[in-house]
Amino acid sequence: MRPRRGPGLRARLTLLATGLSAAVSALLLWLGWLLVGGVVAAVPDLPPGSTVKVNGVPVVARQLGEALQEAARHRLLQAGLVAFLLAVTATVLLAWVITGQVLRPLHDVTATARRLSAESLDERLHLPGPRDEVAELADTFDAMLDRLQAAFQAQRRFVANASHELRTPLAVVRTEVDVTLADPTADEAELRRMATVIRSATLRAQQLVDGLLVLARSESGALRAWELADLASLAQAALRIVAPETRGRGLRVTTRIAPAVTAGDPALLDRVVGNLVENAVRHNVGGGWVEVCTGLVAGQAMLRVSSSGEVVAAEEVSALFEPFHRGGVARTAHDGAGLGLSIVRAVVAAHAGTVRAEPIPGGGLAVTVHLPAA
User: Fold this and answer.
1) pLDDT digit string (tens) for 121-147?
2) What is the CATH number of the domain that holds 214?
3) CA distances (Å), 335 to each of 15, 31, 192, 208, 363, in order?
4) I need a surface site. Which of 72, 196, 327, 350 has the fewest CB within 10 A?
């Protein structure tokens, strides 16, 4: 921490209150001094040659006003200086005590922040009392801790899931190599079989790493390019890629394609459309249906991919956008890395858009993406 010098906030507030009190008291004393002098100076004139005693001292009549003025001001200064010292002392004590009470919640915030670590993010202030600036600060601090705790938990889940997903293909590679090396009679056919298995495992690991890189780049908002892209042409290209699989599974594909031009990173936007179309095909049922729609809605470029499939509960929809989550498919399945919708959400957010998923009655899912129209 950078060292800081000077008095603390409590001391500065006390000094400020004391200075203001001293200035006001001095001003009042000066005004009283002027007022008393003016009032006494208005004493009526006495006959010439007469004398008057002021504080036991004979004073000539013509000097009576000056003598009374000096005596009154002297008395005023005596009493005023005592009152001045008492007022300043009372201000120091009250300001010190009151500022201590007011700033106590800030000390609680500081103490909590010092105690916090990645293992104790569940602490909260829950400051009671009226809704003032200090309470607002404490509530903001609690809300920040909520976000930090959620971020740390998501990061831990992400690292754990990524480690698990990468361990699977690496274990396959090591097992195949160990088994083949341990077999002294392994021939060319066995070696080719091992090479095929290893190639499949390394391809899966590469897909996972590529997905993680795309997800990290999207979440950081580091877009490599910013060009015009038509969601309609991207959707048609994605449908051509999955056409053999849709025919092999007997899926019925319908489209409502209209121009939907947006601006952004073409490679990432292509990944969004491709992921949604691939998910709609891979997580479908035999003989099911897929519908892809694009167009302009309320001044925004829209892409909607709907498909039949297994029944998805409404409360599970938000979890589908979490990394390594596959709806209705075991986490260790080999038909994807479980990053498709996570990448979609991150890329859409990086392009200032929105994405929404809705379960379809009877089974299936509809995902709608809105992006700013170019």
Assistant:
1) 777 777 676 666 777 777 887 888 888
2) 1.10.287.130
3) 70, 90, 23, 11, 20
4) 196
